[in-house]
Amino acid sequence: MAIQQRNKVDAKFSMSSMTDIVFLLLIFFLVTSTLINPNALKLLLPKSTNQISAKPQVSVSIKHYPESNTFSYHINGHQQATPYEQVEVSIQALLQNTEEPTFTILADQSVPIEKVVELMNIAKRNQYKVILATSPE
Q1: Closest by CA position to 115, among listed 48, 69, 54
Q2: Is there a domain that residue 11 lies in?
């Protein structure tokens, strides 16, 4: 009586664990991508060691174009620029009926201080709190 050995190699590969890992990575990247600040404008902010934890309701970005020496104002990071004459009206509309109206000014390093002060004057006229955004050192 001949005893047959059955030591055949099983060539099957289970993909279930690989799909689980891919699914978990997908969830991880979806969650972390929503935590990233959605500012579409590339601004080179001035550096500072002081950081504030207050959460503003509105952000106003000032982009400087040195080749034409012009400035554009973007509210809440929108690609579409808002004319300076409409900035105050837009901020008022967004901050109406809020308990502590606060907005952030994000200005390029090359923006003259007078443009930043103009936005600070809007805040003073309307009794808004202002946060001047900087990048950490």
Answers
A1: 69
A2: no
Torsion of CA 116, 118, 122, 127, to 10 degrees: 60
Residue 82 pairs in a beta bridge with 73
Q: According to DSSP H, which parts of 6-135 are helical?
A: 16-35, 84-95, 113-126
For residues 7-32, average pLDDT:
81
The residue among 97, 61, 96 whose CA lies nearest residue 77 is: 61
Question: What pLDDT is recorded for position 137?
Answer: 62
Question: How wide is the angle at C-alpha 11 spanned by C-alphas 9 and 15, nearest 5°?
Answer: 140
Rounded to whole angstroms, the Cα distance separating 14 from 20 reads: 11
Is the distance from CB of 45 to CB of 106 less than 8 angstroms? yes
Domain count, the chain: 1
Q: Does residue 13 form part of some domain? A: no
pLDDT in tens, 103-131: 888 888 888 888 888 888 888 888 888 88
Host H or E run for residue 71: strand 70-75
CATH number, domain containing residue 94 = 3.30.420.270
The answer to whether the pTM exceeds 0.70 is: no
